[in-house]
TrEMBL record:
GO terms for biological process: cytosine catabolic process. CDD domains: Bact_CD. InterPro entries: Amidohydro_3 (IPR013108), Metal-dep_hydrolase_composite (IPR011059), Metal_Hydrolase (IPR032466), Metallo-hydrolase_Enzymes (IPR052349). One of its GO terms (molecular function) is cytosine deaminase activity. SUPFAM superfamilies: Composite domain of metallo-dependent hydrolases, Metallo-dependent hydrolases. This is Amidohydrolase family protein.
Amino acid sequence: MTFDTIIRHANLADDRMGVDIAISKGRIVAVEPGITAEAGEVIDAGGRLVSAPFIDIHFHMDATLSLGTPRLNRSGTLLEGIQLWGELKPLLTKEAVIERALRYCDLAVSQGLLAVRSHVDVCDERLTGVEALLEVKDLVRDYLDLQLVAFPQDGYFRSATAARNLERSLDMGVDVVGGIPHFERTMEDGRRSVTALCEIAAERGLLVDLHCDETDDPMSRHIETLAYETQRLGLQGRVAGSHLTSMHSMDNYYVSKLLPLIVEAQIHCVPNPLANIVLQGRHDTYPKRRGMMRVPELMALGVNVAYGQDSCMDPWYSFGNADMLDVAHMAVHTGHMTSPAAVKASFRAVTENAARTFGLDGYGIAPGCHADLVLLEARDTAEAVRMRANRLMVLRRGKIIAQTPPRTAKLSLAGRPDTLEPWRYAPVEASAS
C-alpha cells in the first residue's frame, strides 16, 4: 500500500511516542508505530510533537488589527474599549474589515490556528462586519474554519437595533447566537436578554455563546440564568458561557452552588486569559483581582473548558499574535496550573476542548480524521506550552500550508557548543508527578 504522506517518529498529545501517521486523500488512515508502507512524501518528526490544530473559540475578527483607529484605549478598561469600538464602527468599510481579517487569517495559519469562532457586532445598522466576515468565511474555507456569532455588542435590549439586526444576521447565515447581558441597563434586562437569546437559539436549532458576567462585580450572576435557560430549553451541550470573570470575585459559598448548575447544564466555559487579566481589576488598588473564572475547579468537575484569545491588536487588547500557546501559557500562570497534569489540561483547552465547543467534525489524530496537523518544535505538550513552541509545519487536509524554520542560536563561547536549539534544553528525566 502507498499513502500520500507518512509522518514518522511523532510524539502525540496523549503521550504516545515514536508513532507514524499515514495520510491519504486528506484524511488520516493509520496511526501506529513502524508503518512499513511507502508514501509520496515522508516527513520525519524526529521525536517532536505532532498535534491536531489549535482552535480559538472566542475572538473578535471584525475588530482585529484595528489598534490605534481612531485612537488608543488610554484607561485600558473594558468600558473604554467598548466606547472606542463605538467610535470606530461608523468608520468601518466592508473592504477594510475583509482586508484586516484576511491578514489575520494568514497569521493564524502560520501559528497552526485553523479554526476560529469570531463574534461579530450586529448593532451597526449597515451590518458591515457581518457582510464582511461572511465573505471572509467563504474565502478562507479551504484552509481555516470560521464560525460566526451574532453579537449585540451594545446590548440586546439596550441597543434599539440589536434585536432586529441579530435576526437579520442569523438569516444571512451567521452560525451562533451571542449576547452580553451584563452590559444591559439593569440586571433584570440582562436576565431577560439571556432568556430571549436562548429562546431564539432553541427555535432556530443553533448554538449559543454569550459574553457573560465579564465584570469584577460578584453580584453579576447571569451565568446562573444561562444554566437555567439551558436546562429549560433542552440546550445542554450547545451553550457556551464566555469570560465569566465575576466568578473570580464571588464568595466560595455561592460558587459551591453555581458550579454544579454549570455541570448539570453541560455548559462550555470559555475564559480568555490574555484579555481577562488585562481588562479586569482596573478599579482595584491592592490586592488586584486577576479576573479569571475558576478554571481548575471547573475542570476538576468535568466541565469542558476551552480558552479563547478574545482580541488581537484592537480597542481592548493591544498585544496578541494568533498564538494559542501564548494563551495557554498565560492560563497556567494565572490559574496556578503548573502541575504536569494541569499544563496538559491547558494544552487540551486550546485544542480538543475547543473543538468540542466549536462542534468541529473530523478533528483529532485518529483514523478517519481530517489530516489537519501541526508539527511543533517540542517533545510534548508541556514543553510546547513552556516554549510557545515554533510551528515547524502546518498541514491542512494533508497538504503543507505553512512552514517555519527551526529556532537555532549560534554561540561564540569558549569551550561551549557552537549552536543551541532551545527545545532540547529540558531535564532529561522530568518528573511525571
